[in-house]
Amino acid sequence: MYELGVEQINCNGKLIDLPSLEVVRPAPKMPSDANIDWLLHIYFTRREFTRCRRLIERELNRHLNPEYLYFVQGLIDREEGNNIDALRHLQKSVELNPRNIETYKEIGRTLYLMGRFGQALGVFREAEQRSSIKDHEIYHYLGELLYRAATTQTLSELARQQQDESRSYFELAVQTGRKQESYVRLAELYRKDKQYQKAIEVLENCLHLTPENSEVLIEISVLYLKINETQKAHDRLAEVVSIERKCSPKGLLAFGAILQSRNDVDGALSKYSQIANAEPEIAELWNNIGLCFFKKQKFIVAISSLRKSVWLSPLNYNALYNLSLIYIASEQYASAFHTLAAAINLRKDNAECYMLLGLCLRKLDDMENAFVALERASSMSVGLQGGGRNPLVVLNFALFCYETGRLAMATEQYNRFMSQAQDLLLPTEYKFQATKLKSLLRISSQGNGILLDPLDSEESDLGHSRTTDLPPDELPLEVNAVVSQK
Amino acid sequence: MVGAPNWLHVETEDDSPQITTLSSCITLSDVQRDGYVRLLAADISLDETSQEPSATLKVFRGLKLKQEQTLPGIPAAIASLYIDESEPKTPVIAVAIAESVLFYRNLKPYFKYTIPALDSEELEQEVWRKLPVVKTESYPALLDSLKDIEHAKLSRKSQRLLQLSEEEREGFIATHKDSPVGRVGNIVAMCCLKRISSDSNPPSHLVLATDTGLVLILEPQGFNLVYEGRTCSHETAVPSMISVQGTFEADFCIVVATRNGGVYLLRKSHSEGQEVFKLGSPLTGLLLLPIDQTIIASSMDNRYVCYSKRGKLLYQVALPAPPVCILPLPLTHLGLTLVAIALKGGMVKFYLQRYQVDEFALEETVDAMLYGRMGMEDHVLTLVTQSGQIVVKILRRVSRFEPRPEDLGNRRPGGDQNAIADASILDKPKKSSIFVEQAAREKKQAKATYGSFQVELWRVRHTAARATIDAINSSESTISGDLTHAPVKLSAEVCGSGPAFRLYLTVQNLSTFKMASNLVVLLHADRRHYAIQQTLARLPSVLPGVPLRVDFEVVAVLDSMDKLPPATLNPDNSQIRVMLMKAGQAKPLIAAVVAMPQSEAAY
C-alpha cells in the first residue's frame, strides 16, 4: 500500500523507510545573491552619492560581504568632507578584510587630508609591510609624508635623515610606478640638495612618459639656468612656447630672464608684459622689468617698477638692492640711503651693500658714517673667500680714504686691491681708476699731502658699470642671479 | 560651431518610454532578422524602496516598447552577438547577471552559462566536512577557524553562515551541507570580441571580467572557455571596466580598469595583465581606440586622458564637469573615430584626439549612450538621461569634424610668436608729475633731506628715552602701586665685599588671596661700572605669604692695570636699578635703586 508523498510504508507488518530522493535532487544552491558592488562603484564614480547611500543602506542588511559597501561609504564621506565618518567606515572595511591594502591606503590618504601626518605615516608604513607587491602609491605617500616631516623637524640631524629616507622612497616610487608626481617630487628633493644634474635627469625621464608637459619642461629649464646652461634652458622654454600658446608665468619669467641676460631687453620686456597682463602681482617680475628699463637708461620708469616690486614684497632683499642702485645712478641719494638701510637690515652680510651705503653717505656729506660703512664693507670683503669677494669694494674704500686724507690707509687698501685683482679680468674702468689712484698716491706721498681734485666721476660711474651680482644661490628667476655684466 | 548643427534631433511622441540603464546595458540588434535594428535595454529599477532591485529586458522598435522579459537579477552588461556562420544569421542576446551569462535566441531563453567556481581553501572544505557531523556546541570553534581565511575568499554559504544567529545555523547547515564549497565570482563587465575580421557579422566570443580579477573569453557555441587571464598578480585589483580590440583568431588586446584607478593590459600571448598606468582617482570610462591603439580614459577628477599602450601619457584635457560616461563613435564614412563624453549637467562633448570638435547640451545628465545603426538609419546616437528620457539624434550626412584652426594654430612651431608679443602692451606703473618733481627736488636737495631726517631721528630717540625714564621714575618705590594686580613688595640686600657681589632680591606677595604671576625681574646698571651675567629673570608665580628669593651675581668693573674702579664711578652713581615687571605690560610694577657698596680691589 503506497500513498503519494509518504516516506514510510507498511510492508509485511514492518515499517520501511522509502529511499530518499535527495540523491537525485540537486543540492540546494545558495540564492544567487545580487552582488551589486560593481553597480555601486559605477554610481560612485559618477558622483551620484545620494543614490549610493540609498543603495548601501539597503544592501548592508543582506550583503554577504559588506567590505566594499563600507569602503565606498567611507570614500563618499571623505568626498563630502566628513573625514571622521570616513575613517570610521574605512576602519570597518579593514576589520572585515585586514589584507586589503587599498583600504589601508585610503585610510592613510584620509588622515593625510585631515592633517594628521604622523598617523598617516604609521598607516602607510603598515601598508608597506603588509603589501605583497611593490606599490608605488605607498612609496609616493611615504616619501611625501617623510618630506613633510623633515621640513617641520627641528632637529637638523633627524630632518636630514628623514629627507634622505623620503628621497629613497621617491626613488622606489619612480622605479616601480610611473607617476609624474613622484618624479617631480624627487627632482625637487635633488634640487634642494643642489644636485641639479640629477634633478634634470629625473625630470628628463619624466618627460619620456609625459611628453609636452609644460610644467616639467619649465622646471627643467629653470634647473638648467641654475647650472648656467643658458642655451639648453632657452631651448626648453622655446619648446614650451611652441606647445602652448599660454606659457605659465614661471616659464615666461625664466624666458625673459634669459633674453635679458643676453641683452635682448626688448624681447625680455615683451615676455614680461605677457605675464603682467595675466598676473601682475609678482615682485620678481617687476624687479626684472625695472632692471630692463635701467639698462635702457629710463630711470624714472625703472624706479617706479622697482618700487612696485618692493611694494609687493617689502622684504625682498634683491629688489631693495636693485632699487637703491638705481637711486644712486639717478642721484637720489636720500632715497637710496633709506632703501639701503632696509636692505642691510634684511641681510647684514653683504659687503657690496655696505659699500653702496658708504658711497651714498659720502654724497650726503656724512663722512664719519661713510667711513664706518666703507670700512665694514672692506673688512667683510677681506673675510670672504674666493668668488664672493669683490675688489671693487676695496678700491672704493681706498679712493675714499685718499679723498679724506687718510693716505696710509689708502695705500694699504690699494695694495689689497691689487692683490685681489691680480688674477681677475676687470673692466678697464677699474684699472683706469686704480692707476690714477696709484699715481696720486705716489705724488701725495712725495708732495706731503697735496690735495688733488676729488674723483667725482668715479662713484656714479661705478653705479652704472656694476649692475648686480649676488651669490648664485639666489632665486633663479631674479635677474640678479642671471644678469651679470662683468 | 557655426552653421547647422551636426546632429539632427529626432522628435518623439510625448509618451516616450522611460528607462533607467547604463551604457553597458543597452545594445542594438536585428533580433527579428527583418533588417530593422531594434534597441535593446535592460531597465534597472533600483530606486523604488518598496521592492527589491530588479531588471527587465526591453525591446524597442523605434521608441515603441515591443517586448519585455523579466531578468533574474541586475545585469552587468548585455550584448548582441552572432554565434555561428549558419544562415540565416540569428543574433543571440547575452545578458551577464552575477556569475552567469544568460543567452536568449529569438528572445527566448536558450542557454545559461555559469562561470566555474574557484577552488576554496583547504581549511574551509575541512570545516564543511565536519559541520554536518559534529554537535551544535562545537560550531563556534569551527566557525572561528573560518575567520582565519580572508572573508572575501570564503564561499557564499560560509559567508552567510557566519552572519546567521546560532539558532538558524543548524537548519542552514542541514540544507547546504551537500552543495559544493566553492567561491564564484560575479561578472562585472562583458564585451564582444569578433573571431575574425569581416564585414558581415562574423561570429564573436564573449570577454568576461569577474570581481575576483579573472578575465575569461567564452566561446558561445560549445560554451568553453578559450582564454583565461588575470588582471594582475595581486588580489586586490577588482576590474570595473573592460575594452577590447582585435580579433580572436589573429591578435587581440584587452584593457581592464580596476576600481582603484589602475589600467592593465592583457594580450593574446600574455594572460597576466601588466599595469599600463594608474590614476589617482577611479575611472568613469575606458576605451581602447582601434586606429592608433591608444587608451582613452576619463576619471573622477575631471580629466580626459590618453595613454599609449606602453604607459606614455599622450595628452590630457581638463573637463569642465565630472564625466559620466564615454563612447566611441566610429565614423567609417569619414575614416575617423570620435569620442563622445557625457558630462554631469547634460553637456555632451565630442573629441577628435585632443581637440573638441562638437558639443551639445541636454537638459539633464546623460546616463547612457549608444551609437550605431538603428532602425533603417546608419549613424544614430541614442542618449538615455538620468530621469529615463530617451533622446535620439542622427548625424547629418554632410557633417565634417575638424579641429578648430585656432586650436591647431599654436602647434605650428614659432608661427605666431610675434602676434603674441604685440598683443599686449606693458602696463607700467603710473608716474605722476608729483613723483617726477619730488625726484628732481631730491636730486638738488639730497643733503638737506638727509640732514633733517637725521635730526628727526635723533629727536625721536630722545623722546623715547625721556618717556622711558619717566616710566621708571613714576614707579619708584618698593611696593607696587598698581591696584589691578596683587600688590608685591620687593626688598634687596647686597652681600660680598667686591669685586664680585651677590645681589639677593626678595619678592613678597602682600595680597591675601591673589596670586602674582608672570613676573620678570630686570637689572640695569652702567656697563662701564658693573658687569652682570644674567640681567633678566622670569619668576615663578608668587603665592601670598610665601616670599620668593632670587639672587644675581654682580661684578664691579676694575681697571686691569691699577685694580681701581673707573674714574667715572662715584658714590652717586654706584647703583643698580632693579625693575619688577609683569609680562605684557609696558610700565614696570616696581623700579627700585640698589646702592652698591664700594668694591675692594682684587688681588
TrEMBL record, chain A:
Q: Where is this region: Disordered?
A: 454-486
What's an example GO cellular component term for this entry?
A: ciliary basal body
Keyword line: Repeat, TPR repeat
Recorded hits in PROSITE patterns, A to Z, give: TPR
Task: Check the record and name the Gene3D superfamilies matching this protein.
Answer: Tetratricopeptide repeat domain
Q: In which ranges do the TPR repeats occur?
A: 67-100, 180-213, 283-316
Pfam families given for it? ANAPC3, TPR_19
Cross-referenced InterPro entries: TPR-like_helical_dom_sf, TPR_rpt
A biological-process GO annotation:
cilium assembly
What family name appears in the similarity comment? Belongs to the BBS4 family.
**Name of the protein in its database record:** Uncharacterized protein, isoform A
What phylogenetic lineage does the species belong to? Eukaryota, Metazoa, Ecdysozoa, Arthropoda, Hexapoda
TrEMBL record, chain B:
Q: Where is the Bardet-Biedl syndrome 1 protein GAE domain?
A: 488-600
- Pfam families, per the entry: BBS1, GAE_BBS1
Q: State the InterPro entries in the record.
A: BBS1 (IPR028784), BBS1_N (IPR032728), GAE_BBS1 (IPR056419), Quinoprotein_ADH-like_sf (IPR011047)
User: Cellular component terms, GO, for this chain's entry?
Assistant: axoneme; BBSome; centrosome
Molecular-function GO terms, alphabetical: patched binding; smoothened binding
Q: Which residues form the Bardet-Biedl syndrome 1 N-terminal domain?
A: 7-267
Q: Which GO terms describe its biological process?
A: non-motile cilium assembly; protein localization to cilium
- Protein name stated in the entry: Uncharacterized protein
Q: Which organism is it from?
A: Drosophila ananassae
Q: What is the lineage of its organism?
A: Eukaryota, Metazoa, Ecdysozoa, Arthropoda, Hexapoda
Q: Which gene encodes it?
A: Dana\GF25008
